[in-house]
Structures are given as structure tokens and as C-alpha cells.
Amino acid sequence: MNSTRRSFLAGTMAATAAATLPPLLAASDIVGLSALELTAAIRARSVSCVEVMQAYLAHIEQVNPRYNAIVNLRDADALLAEARAADADLGRGHYRGWMHGFPHAVKDLANAAGMKTTLGSPIFRDQVAAEDSLHIARLREAGAIFIGKTNVPEFGFGSQSYNPVFGATLNPYDGKSTAGGSSGGAAAALALKLVPVADGSDLMGSLRNPAAFCNVIGFRPTPGRVPLADGFMEELPCNGPMGRNVSDTTRLLASMAGYHPKSPSSLNEPTDQFLQPLARDWRGARVGWLGDFDGYLATEPGVLDLCEKALDGFRAIGCAVEEALLDFSMDSLWQTWLTFRHWIARGRGLALFEDPTLRAQLKPEFVWEVEGGAGLSADDVARASRERARYYGAVLAAFERFDFLVLPTAQVFPFAATTHWPKAIAGRQMDTYHRWMEIVVPGTLSGCPVAAVPAGFGERGLPMGLQIIGPRYRDFAVLQMAFAYEQASRWNLLHPPRLV
Fold this sequence. Notes:
Elements: H1 3-10, H2 14-17, H3 27-30, H4 35-43, H5 49-67, E1 70-71, H6 76-91, E2 103-107, H7 134-141, E3 145-150, E4 162-163, E5 167-168, H8 184-191, E6 197-202, H9 209-214, E7 217-220, E8 238-243, H10 246-256, E9 286-289, H11 303-310, H12 312-316, E10 320-323, H13 330-353, H14 356-359, H15 364-374, H16 378-401, E11 404-408, E12 424-425, E13 428-429, H17 441-446, E14 450-457, E15 463-469, H18 475-489, H19 491-494
Parallel strand pairs: 2-3, 9-10, 9-11
Antiparallel strand pairs: 1-3, 4-5, 6-8, 7-8, 7-14, 11-15, 12-13, 14-15
């Protein structure tokens, strides 16, 4: 264990140490604590790990059946036994880390040893993980107690968290719309206060879209910031943190981030940067508003108006906000994205696709992706890589003028969970199952860090969000900007679902 990580696991942030809490907490108050408040309460012995587990399990029992955010919940007796062991450790002076005694539900695309990883697929309904994924092992090391998994779309494909194993996760704000995906279960669990923080992953907005639809925070880090055990080549997918607020999200990133030898492309940078104060002066910072890329993207009526009004949050902290355009063909960017998406899907699903019995159990959208990869050549992938490099040049040029780029997190408000995906937006037909989420592709293909922050609520009372894109490797600066915006706007802080 390196010295930075040892220091992180042994200590608490200054903000946590300074948190003021009552000497005793009622069970009904426990789930309302932020993650940083909870860690302070546990370490100060204002509340026991058993009391925390009891409070969360009671809340989950009351709320989760309606929304279906957490799946494969573990046995309560076993969880309480682990909580008692965590209390015993504290009694002996052994503090595991800032998540000591935290109930945590792992996204059902990641592995937690001894627990099922179904991927939302009937094919893997009974698959039990032999070991933790790299980032999940770090949460266990930080003291988390894994209580279950958070729901996902099948194989994580599609920004709508439904699957034939567990069904759909419902939106915390109306109990009938989608919570987004693929980290939909994680985002809904956060908004409903079923967990203090949540892990997620992002290929095509999977940390961002659910954050927008559930009025929480999602952060897609620079690739390599959180290790992936996928060899030497940088992948487009990223693992990352989610929280009810930016401070909790940043603290979770500090646990997940850092070099790992099994992930040779992971970034070998100190993680203690994410333990520094988030507050800073942003007067004079330049924010570029990308909007709908000059009409290129179809958006549901009300989305742009709401997001443009939310830009006042940046102005309130002293930023100059101007319209921006990227000097690159967005249609070419989409075709580049399709190549990479098909390539990744075929790599993941070819063995399943080639077995007729297993193929019959795959969702049509996943089959379409794998079939799309069948016609790709090495030249196609090389050409897409060159186009991506040209696009990155356009992003770099934009960052010569602006410090951050901002755009909506989604093109539509949350839609009915009975709808697999929107077939049209504002009269424009969507030609693929994921075209309605094209707005997240510029962030993914840039390889830059992106924070998803709330932007407010539409006419039906459902949330929408903004993406804040910063220069590559400037993850902490993006989180600092997200924190300043959060303090000015306070959508996620002051507008929880009515149920909580």
C-alpha cells in the first residue's frame, strides 16, 4: 500500500473532522446524513455501525420495493454481524477507513467477492464473483460493508435501467419514469437515501444520465484515474463515483482512484489531491456553453431553456458564460462513436452471440451492437482512432478560449419506464436505441473529466442536469467548479424526492 493511500485510509478530511453532530443520533436521522457527516458520526461513536446498518435496512425495506434500485440484497443477519464486527474493531482502536461500517451497494456490472454479478442478464443470473473488481476492493479496504447490488440495464447497454432478471428501476421523483442508466439503480438509491454514496461506470453517459434524472452528482473521471483491469490499451469505459453532493462524490473518488499494477494504464498520481478543500475563487473563469451544438441535437422542449437558466449558477460565482462551438463535424463524431461502440460490444459479447441458445436470451439492442461489429475491419478502427484524435484537437482549441465547457446532460426529461428508449425527440426520429443520448458522446470521446450536476426541474417536476467538461487530467478542478456551482444553485441540496 503506498504512503498516500495509507494516509488516506487512516485519516479523515479536515471537513469531516470539523463536522458538528449531536452526541446521539436517532435512527430516523441516520439515513439523512451526508456521507461525510456519517463518517464523522461513526468515528466519534455518536452512532454505532449496527445502528447505521439497522437504520438503512429498515429504510430499504420500506422504500426499495416501490423503486427497485437495490437488487440481490444480502441477508440482514449476516449484515448485522458484519456491522457488529466493525463496531468491535472501533472498540479496539482499529479504524478501517472513512467508509468504516458504511452500507454500500455495488453496481451490478462490477464484482464483489462472494456476491452475484448478474449484469442484468438471465445468462448470468447465478454468477457469483470470485474476487472484487479493483475499485470495489478499494471500497472494501476503506471499510464499506457490501449489502447488495444496484440495478442496471442488461450488460449496461442503454440508458434505461431495466432487465429481464430484476425489472426496471423507477425514478425517485415520480415512481413511474426511468431513473436512467446504466447506473440507474445507483442514482436512484442515492436520491432515495438507500446508500450514503454509490459506485458507477460510464461508457455512454452511464454516470451522467442517471445523475441528471435523479438529481444527484455523477463524475466521469479522466480514463485511468480509476483503474480498469483490461490490459494496456486505454478503454472508453470508466469507473467513477456518485454522491448526493459534490463533497461526498469527491471523497469517494479519493478511495477509488490511484495506480494499480494490474491496470498498467492507470494514472500514477497522488490521490490526496482529492482530499484538499473544494472551495476556491472562480471569478473571471470562462465557461463555454455548447448547448445543442447549434441545433444539431434534437432536444425535448424545455430542456434547453431550463439548462440555460441554470447557467446563472456559474455567473453567480463570477464566471463569464459565452456560447461555444467545437470546430468538428458532430455527424462524423457520431460515426466514430458507432465504430468504437460496435467494437467494444463485439469484444464483450461475441462468445454469447455465437451460441444460438445464448443469443436468444440477449436483448435486441445488444445483438445489434455485436452484429455491427461483425463488419468492422482493423482499418475501420484505425480510421475511427484518427478521427477521435482530430476531435481531441478541436477540444484542445476550445480550451484555449474557455476553462470549462458546459452542455445539458440529456436531450429529454425522464420518460416512462415502460418505454425502452425514445423513438423520436421533438419530431425527429431516433435511428438507433441510443441516439437520444448522443449529447454525452462529446465528453466520452474527449477523454476529459466530466461532472454531472443538477440543473433543476421541468414542468412535470422531473430533474435535468448539466455536464461540466474540463481539460484532461484536471479532475479536481472540475470537481471544484462543480462544488462552487452546487453551492450557488443548490438543486440537489434543497430538493430531495418528496418521499425522503
